[in-house]
C-alpha cells in the first residue's frame, strides 16, 4: 500500500538550487531565507552588490549554501553570464524566482519614455531574458519550477501606475504562455501576485507620490485582514510553487494580498 509523504517532505527543497532575483532585500531576501531554510542552495541575484553580499553572508551564517551574483537583469549578456556562473557553481538550477522589480507612480502623460522603458524592462523583459537562459538548463536536468512576481495591479488597474500595471499584466499572461510552452518539458511556471507589502519599494511609492509615509501605510492596510503584507507572507507562497506540494500546478496565479482584491 502506498503511503502519502508527509507535508514536510513535500515542502523539502533538499538538493535543489534556486536563483532569486531582487534578492538583496524585501520579498527576494525573505524568499531566499525561506527556501534556504527548506534545504535549497541559493543564488542571490541583484544589482546592489553590497546588500547582496551581506544577504549571502547572512544565509551562510545559518549554515546554508548561498552565493551572491551581481547581475543587471535587463541585460541579456548579464543574464547569460549569471546563468552560466550559477550552473558552474552549483551544478544545476531547479528553481527560478523572477522577482526583481521597480515602479514609477505616474500616469501615461507624466511618464518619460526612459521611465516607461525602465519599468517594463525590469519587471517584464527581465523575466524573458533570464528565463531564456535558465530553461535549457532545466530541460537538461529534467525540469524545474519558475515563479514570476506579478501584482494585484497585474489583474486590475491602479492609479498613477500605468507602466507598472502594464508590466505586471504582461507578467501574468507571460506566465500562462510559458506554462503552456514548457509543461511537457517538466517545467512548471506560476505567478504570485502580492498586495501592498512592507518593503523599500512600497515606502518609495509614498515618497514618489509626496504623501506622508505613515498615512500611506495606514491606507495600504485598509483591507479585510487589516494589515500590510510582510515579505515572509509572499515567501511562503513562493515556497508552495517551488516545492513538490504544487507538483500538479502550472500556469496558476496566486493572489497574496490580505483580501485586497476580494
Short description:
This protein is 47% helix and 15% strand. The protein is of the alpha/beta class and 262 residues long. The longest helix is centred in the middle third of the chain and has 28 residues, at 113-140.
What does this protein look like?
The chain has a seven-stranded parallel sheet with strand order 3-2-1-4-5-6-7, sandwiched between helices. The chain has one domain: Rossmann fold, CATH 3.40.50. It is globular. β1 (17-21), α2 and β2 (41-46) form a beta-alpha-beta unit. The protein has 262 residues and is α/β, with parallel strands linked by helices. It has helices spanning 7-11, 26-37, 49-61, 76-90, 113-140, 162-182, 200-209, 213-220, 231-242, and strands at residues 17-21, 41-46, 66-70, 95-98, 144-149, 187-194, 253-256. It has nine helices and seven strands, in the order αβαβαβαβαβαβαααβ.
Amino acid at each position: 500500500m502506498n503511503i502519502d509523504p508527509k507535508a514536510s517532505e513535500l515542502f523539502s527543497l533538499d538538493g535543489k538550487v534556486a536563483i532569486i532575483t531582487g534578492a538583496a532585500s524585501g520579498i527576494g531576501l525573505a524568499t531566499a531565507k525561506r527556501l534556504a531554510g527548506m534545504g535549497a542552495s541559493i543564488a542571490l541575484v541583484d544589482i546592489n552588490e553590497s546588500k547582496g553580499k551581506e544577504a549571502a553572508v547572512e544565509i551562510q551564517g545559518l549554515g546554508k549554501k548561498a552565493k551572491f551574483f551581481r547581475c543587471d537583469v535587463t541585460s541579456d549578456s548579464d543574464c547569460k553570464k549569471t546563468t552560466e556562473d550559477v550552473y558552474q557553481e552549483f551544478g544545476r538550477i531547479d528553481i527560478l524566482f523572477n522577482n526583481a522589480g521597480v515602479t514609477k507612480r505616474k500616469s501615461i502623460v507624466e511618464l518619460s519614455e526612459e521611465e516607461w522603458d525602465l519599468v517594463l524592462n525590469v519587471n517584464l523583459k527581465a523575466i524573458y531574458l533570464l528565463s531564456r537562459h535558465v530553461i535549457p538548463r532545466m530541460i537538461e536536468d529534467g525540469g524545474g519550477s519558475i515563479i514570476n512576481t506579478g501584482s494585484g495591479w497585474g489583474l486590475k488597474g491602479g492609479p498613477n501606475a500605468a507602466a507598472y500595471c502594464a508590466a505586471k499584466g504582461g507578467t501574468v499572461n507571460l506566465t500562462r504562455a510559458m506554462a503552456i510552452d514548457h509543461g511537457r518539458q517538466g517545467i512548471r511556471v506560476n505567478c504570485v501576485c502580492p498586495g501592498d507589502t512592507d518593503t523599500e519599494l512600497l515606502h518609495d511609492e509614498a515618497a514618489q507620490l509626496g504623501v506622508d509615509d505613515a498615512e500611506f501605510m495606514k491606507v495600504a492596510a485598509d483591507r479585510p485582514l487589516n494589515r500590510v503584507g510582510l515579505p515572509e507572507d509572499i515567501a511562503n507562497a513562493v515556497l508552495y510553487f517551488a516545492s513538490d506540494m504544487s507538483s500538479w500546478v502550472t500556469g496558476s496565479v496566486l493572489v497574496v494580498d490580505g483580501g485586497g482584491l476580494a
